[in-house]
Amino acid sequence: MRQLRTLTVCLVLSMTTGCPTRGSSVNHPEQALTAYARALEQGNLDAAYAMMSSEFRKKYTRDDFVAMLKNHSHELKQSIAQLKGKPRKVELEARVTFGEGDALKLVQRKGRWQIASDPVDFYGQRTPREALRSFIRAIERHRYDVVLRFVPNKWAETMTVEKLKEQWEGGKREEVATLLKNLKANLEAPIHRKEDRATMPYADRFEVRFVKEDGVWKIEDPD
Length: 223
Fold this sequence. Notes:
The chain is of the alpha+beta class. It is 47% helix and 18% strand. It folds into 2 domains: 83 residues, no CATH class; 94 residues.
């Protein structure tokens, strides 16, 4: 069901940000959803896939798309019926990326675009990927008081800012520099999540391990 919602979300984003997609001439979210529902109802999966955003198509092939729909055929029928109905509310959103993976969410209210995310949340931990970016940023800025937030509970009682500084700036500076370089080069690597655990294999033989504690993601092992 989560994958099915992803299909709809990616479709809406592709149409509301003004970016045209292949095989589509719609210019409004409601038209996009109606055309998408019609394509699915008629079994025209090529047309439905063409309406997905370019980002979605880079991540999922047409075969992946078809497989996801077939695996959720019952939910798909319900979604088609709902999509064909008139939506209660259409909200336009935009996501602006900048720097090294930072992003701000904007929403349109009464014809005006407004920032909808916290612009000063430099060290977020809401998702594993966000935690990894924040972890790297904190180390590069020597903010070991912030790095301490990413230490799992099982080590938190014995860890201090001073110990972290020694760990990251001590005699293994070259190893640390290589680690950060590899992590930054693989920030978009796939992350596999299962409940409160997640892993991100990278650079052929390394793996970042995440754990979710107290509602936020922490770094159990960066390599």
